[in-house]
Amino acid sequence: MWFKNLLTYRLTQDVPFEPEALETALASKPARPCASQELTTYGFVAPFGKGEDAPLVHVSGEFLLIAARKEERILPSSVVNDAVKEKVEEIETEQMRKVYKKERDQIKDEIIQAFLPRAFIRRSMIFAAIAPRQGLILVNSASAKRAEDLLSTLREVMGSLPVRPATVKIAPTATMTDWVKSQQPAEGFYPLDECELRDTAEDGGIVRCKRQDLASEEIQLHLSTGKLVTQLALAWQDKLSFVLDDKMVIKRLKFEELLQEQAEQDGGDEAAQQFDASFLLMMMTLNEFLPVLFEALGGEEIPQGV
């Protein structure tokens, strides 16, 4: 249980997140298969374990872990459009008349309904960790839309969820650009060999660098012409590495082997204990890391009421 990406959300009011009450709330909207005429379903599943007895809320120390599953029927638009075109041509040829938009849309709806039972089904899961004491919800995703799907569904079953994306006082782009330009990042942070540079002009160019010395003359020349760093690969202490972008999205989050080995030792041989140990160690590490990251980026912008 190691998150690969991270979107961080700040609770704007105190929410108790009692495990039993949360379990009951999540159970009111369980994940289920798509019915024959449904395009998509969304609901909560056990983050670990299977069967009716597996809890929907995994509790480890002061942290909670939940998971949601989306199931959707995949209907390629090209297949639908070809079928609509074929049907329209058939009507126009046989009835010697023009098919206009309203009728075309109706034909399309009928074709979709006919195709749905035969469509492929795709399932995807998303995890979220809740740290009530810190007032944070951490979503294992780089997609704001996927994260919002989970949060809005959580809000639906809880009745209220006062939360917003965590933000900092200084634009991350400005801080990352300064780190690469000066080669003096905040204490504990180390730029790696990857970044993205963008021209500030509306139609400006984009330079993506991999396996590149960011102190090189080539990179510094790009910066001197006004390009800004919009993504930067970083390491923090000897615990994790990641790519940070200008919207505070943490991608390709990787916990170093020492932490993973420690979790294996703490968890023992049982799968459930391994899962619990890795989740707890991950959350303790992120609990230490995120305040330091926010501070390095100018300090967190705390919403009113927190």
Automatic annotation (TrEMBL):
The keyword Cytoplasm applies. Keywords: Cytoplasm, DNA recombination. It comes from the Bacteria. The keyword Cytoplasm applies. It is found in: Cytoplasm, Nucleoid. Pfam families: RdgC. May be involved in recombination. NCBIfam families: PRK00321.1-2, PRK00321.1-3, PRK00321.1-5. Belongs to the RdgC family. This is Recombination-associated protein RdgC. The lineage of its organism: Bacteria, Pseudomonadati, Pseudomonadota, Gammaproteobacteria, Pseudomonadales. The gene is rdgC.
